[in-house]
Amino acid sequence: MRFQLLRLLCALPLFLAFGHTQAAWPDRPIRILVPFPPGSASDLIARTLADKLQPKFPAGVIVENRPGAGGTIATAEMLKSPRDGYTIMTGTMGTHAIAPSLYKNLPFDPLRDLVPVSIVAEVPLMVVATKELPANTMAELVKLARERPGFYTYASPGNGTLNHLMGELFKQTAHIDMAHIPYKGGALAYPDMIAGRVTIMFDPIVAGIAQVRAGKLKALAVAAPQRSAIAPEVPTMAEAGYPGLDSTLWIAIFAGAGTPGDLVLRLNGEINAVIHSPDVKEKFAAQGALAVGTSTFDATARFRADTARWAQVIKDAGVKIE
After folding, report:
1. Domain total for the chain?
2. Backbone angles phi, psi at 278, to 5 degrees
3. Is 170 in the same domain as 102?
4. Residues 116 and 210 in one domain
5. Residue 310: left (phi > 0), alpha (psi -120 to 50), or beta?
6. Are residues 119 and 132 both part of a single domain?
7. To bridge 122 with a disulfide, which of 142, 248, 319, 322 should be the other Cys (CB 3.0-4.6 Å)?
8. 13 and 105 inside one domain
9. Does residue 117 sit in the same domain as residue 217?
10. Is 14 part of any domain?
11. Which domain holds residue 88?
């Protein structure tokens, strides 16, 4: 009963948004805004979707990059556009589920102003460690960290990123103390990791496994519900003894709240059909991403659950972004 009620509550914004829509929709190009630069995971996924949607939408599907300000520039651009299904965007757990708890003056409320169309992909994080670390498992790392509180460190691509918060959640769950070392991007942390100046990092698996395969780092675990096809030898966090640390970075398609429900459902159906095609699954997998494709109801439920989950982690860790 509680599950059915949750689904009804998640569906309510869609039902309220239903109304008359033009039979010719779409009769002009659909824009997909991307809050990150070209070459990012969100960009590659958006361009794959755009290419595969072209036959369904002959007027065209255009990808426009609007990077900067933690995703707020792209989101603000979409929310200034009419709610007619012609402007949608990619968003991530970081830009839309985590950001509201980090930034005091966010110019929008994702839960109020956005409608998740579908969670299109998940990118698992891998725990990579310097080869200097005298531990080869998460249990051994925790033992060392408890013996020397504050001595071991973890890197991240910056304060407030999912990588950072996963480190904080790991500390809270394992009851250990590790120092956070933020960088201006994950790639900048690798030289210090390789040199042994930083202990571990939670990073997207496609980046981490490349360093492991090169013999420069070692992999301790994958923060995902199941092992990754590109690193099947690496155990999950649950297998390592920490089942609560299975959060993956999701990438979703969002529309503005108030977009007619039939258009949202049409977009959901067309996007999911693309996502579930074998060649798209292969393209996503090459980037270390798992093709997902959810209903709007399930996307909304996960969006709300992750927003609440990370708000609590941020509060408990005292993370602040000024």
Report:
1. 2
2. -55, -40
3. no
4. no
5. alpha
6. no
7. 248
8. yes
9. no
10. yes
11. 2-123+249-317
Write the DSSP assignment of 196-218 as a string of letters: TSS-EEEEEHHHHHHHHHTTSEE
Q: Average pLDDT for residues 206-211, to the nearest whole number?
A: 89
pLDDT at residue 49, rounded to an integer: 95
Between CA 96 and CA 100 the distance in angstroms is 7
Contact 63, 43 (CB under 8 A): yes
Half-sphere exposure of 33 (CA within 13 A, CB side): 24
Residues 27 and 98 in one domain: yes
**pLDDT 10s digits, 59-114:** 999 999 999 887 889 999 999 999 999 999 999 999 999 989 988 888 899 999 99
CA 204 to chain centre: 10
Residues 301 and 308 sit within 8 Å (Cβ to Cβ): no
Tell me the CA distances in angstroms from 246 to 36, 55, 71, 85, 170, one per residue in order.
25, 37, 24, 33, 11
Q: How many residues in total does the chain contain?
A: 322
Q: What is the pTM of this model?
A: 0.85
Interval 264-290: pLDDT, tens:
999 999 999 999 999 999 988 887 889
Contacting residues for 56 by C-beta, under 8 A, at least 6 apart? 270
CATH number at residue 165: 3.40.190.10
Lookup: tokens for 254: 């969002």
User: Following DSSP, what letter does each residue of 176-201 receive, concatenated?
Assistant: ---EEEE-SSGGGGHHHHHHTSS-EE
Residue 23 has a pLDDT of 58
Least confident of 10-19, 21-30, 148-157, 203-212: 10-19
Q: Report the alpha-carbon distance of residue 171 to residue 149 in Å, rounded.
A: 11
103 and 196 in a single domain? The answer is no
Separation CA 127–CA 125 (nearest Å): 7
DSSP characters over 266-290 = HHHHHHHHHHTSHHHHHHHHHTT-E
Two structure tokens written together for 214: 């090169």
Measured in degrees and rounded to the nearest 5, phi and psi for residue 23 equal -65, -25
122: alpha, beta or left, given left = phi > 0 and alpha = psi -120 to 50?
A: beta
